[in-house]
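Hi V.,

Quick status before I head out on leave. The structure for the redesign project is tokenized and pasted below; the design run finished overnight.
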């Protein structure tokens, strides 16, 4: 038995010239499952909630209170919460599904050899990068709407003094660094956890890998939380105005 660790996702088949990788294959079925599950759950909501609905409502309420504690109460929290909560739930599910037993045993014969049918979605940097780019672009749009185009550009290009010009360049580098910090933190931790688990299962396939699997589960939860909270903090910073009477 060979241990095959690939940084790039494996291609399963092609639709025309479009390659379908195992991470995209997993993503499609996960998206379809969550969509159908949300429709079914929404259609079964009751005025007098049962145990599961009551638990979900309590979790959403606590998450909303946490959002308000960071970004403040009012319309800002109402607008941001659906995005951040959805992001946390989706990233959490993406992080946890690789721990479903038996996935690695399901393989597919391709032109390049035998490849696993399923692979962790967040272990594909292309997916994580596009998700991070979407978040960072949203942050920039919020900053432009909040402060105005001229003030937004003036944050990065300020020629009144050499010091302000230097600080503007540093702010620009900081915005670019958000892409790297958000994406590599999530991708790096989850890919490293996947590799570590695979190595330990290969070397000692019984009880020794269990502590590493539990550590991976903890990392999956923490990384979903960190990604969402950092997104919330960045949005909060972008929505701040210099004038006291300004609103989002």
């Amino acid at each position: 038995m060979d241990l095959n660790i690939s940084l790039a996702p494996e291609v399963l088949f092609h639709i025309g010239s479009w390659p379908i990788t195992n991470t995209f294959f997993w993503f499609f079925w996960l998206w379809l499952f969550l969509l159908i599950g949300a429709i079914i759950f929404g259609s079964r909501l009751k005025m007098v909630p049962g145990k599961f609905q009551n638990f979900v409502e309590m979790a959403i309420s606590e998450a909303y209170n946490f959002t308000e504690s960071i970004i403040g109460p009012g319309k800002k929290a109402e607008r941001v919460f659906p995005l951040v909560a959805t992001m946390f739930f989706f990233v959490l599910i993406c992080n946890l599904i690789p721990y479903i037993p038996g996935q690695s045993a399901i393989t597919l014969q391709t032109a390049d050899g035998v490849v696993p049918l399923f692979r962790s979605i967040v272990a594909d940097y292309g997916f994580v990068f596009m998700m991070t780019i979407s978040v960072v672009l949203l942050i920039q749009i919020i900053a432009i709407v909040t402060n105005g185009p001229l003030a937004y550009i003036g944050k990065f290009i300020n020629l009144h003094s050499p010091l302000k010009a230097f600080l503007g360049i540093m702010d620009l580098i900081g915005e670019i660094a958000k892409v790297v910090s958000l994406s590599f933190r999530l991708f790096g931790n989850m890919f490293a956890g996947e590799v570590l688990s695979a190595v330990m299962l290969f070397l000692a396939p019984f009880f020794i890998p269990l502590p590493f699997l539990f550590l991976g589960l903890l990392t999956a939860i923490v990384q979903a939380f960190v990604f969402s909270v950092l997104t919330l903090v960045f949005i909060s910073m972008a929505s701040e105005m210099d004038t006291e009477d300004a609103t989002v």
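Above is the designed sequence. The longest strand covers residues 11-15.

G. will cover questions while I'm gone.

Best,
W.
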